[in-house]
Write a structure and sequence with these properties.
By secondary structure, the protein is mainly α. Among the domains are: 68 residues, no CATH class; 40 residues, no CATH class. The protein contains eleven helices and six strands. Strands 1-4 form a two-stranded antiparallel ribbon. Strands 2-3 form a two-stranded antiparallel sheet. It has a two-stranded antiparallel ribbon with strand order 5-6. Strand 2 and strand 3 form a beta hairpin. Helix 3 packs antiparallel against helix 4. The longest helix is centred in the middle third of the chain and has 26 residues. The chain is globular, with a radius of gyration of 23 Å.
Amino acid sequence: MRSTLFHLPSRFVLGGESVPLFGWGVLLVAWAVVAVVAIGWAARRDGWQHAVRSLAIPMAVVGGMIMWVLPALDDGQGVPVRGYGVMLLVAAAAGTWLSVARGRRAGFDADTILSLATVVFLWGLVGARLFFVIEYREQFFREGMSLLDSLRAIANISAGGLVVFGSLPTAGLVAWLFARKRSLNFLRLLDCVAPGLLVGLALGRIGCFLNGCCYGGPCDLPWAVRFPPESPPWLDQAARGLLPRVGDAAFGWSLPVHPAQLYAAIDAGLLAALAAAWTPLARRDGEVFALVLTIHPLARILLELIRIDEQPALGTPLSISQLVSLVLLVVAALLWGSILRSPPRGDRAILPHPPETTA
């Protein structure tokens, strides 16, 4: 576990003067330059209206985070760079790269995939965070916390606290709207990005391991892991009275537990490989995504038997993730029914629209 990798200084000395890095500082100026260049490049290629429509909102969101969110995260030593947050960005980059590579073969240009990845990533974060905040609302709205403190805690995504299933409604909706607006084959688009999403999930679970969240129960297997004091597994075991104590305080590292985060990473990686291998065998649009939507919930239900960080929900013996998994299995069955009723692609070209000629 390595929750904090290092700290970024909030200010640095330039020409003998202390200059802010975040807020109304150097980073915001640099980002403004990047935004202008990116929008200008996109406008030269596709026109100003398309460039502003596709890039203005994500660029503005990042600019807002630089101005207000990053300064709020300063803990006195600077802005902490969390292992979870870094792996989240690595996951987004790797998943996008794979989707762009697959998109070329499916007839989707790189700009389309990059624009889709941007909106899906941002809205997926919103949904995943909202789900976590609702599920663990007592952490964000404790007695004595001001509204500003609650908002800061909610915005501190880099410290952990995302529920993958929470991203599905928001990310799925914006992806559908994206495809509809551009007259793209939605199922074919889902097939294209499915392995990339799973690669991102696998890398994101490594971030969970660095953060200590999403932990498993005690075990005595050779690959069991211990987490340091004040980590989520340690706090849980201390609250349960499972750790040795000196007076009123627990001490030492946690008891050995299942590295459930790494199990989930391996599961997502293997499923990504399966989805990629199934792509040339698929005869209908949507088969690759439907395969993922069938296998992943089953794996998640089994994984929840090892994880102990989620309590039974809604008066059932199942966790909220297991209940959502059951709903997804129903959706997968309906999707398979719709897909199998459609005619096979045969040998026709699997392009969303006639390819554009380039000079």
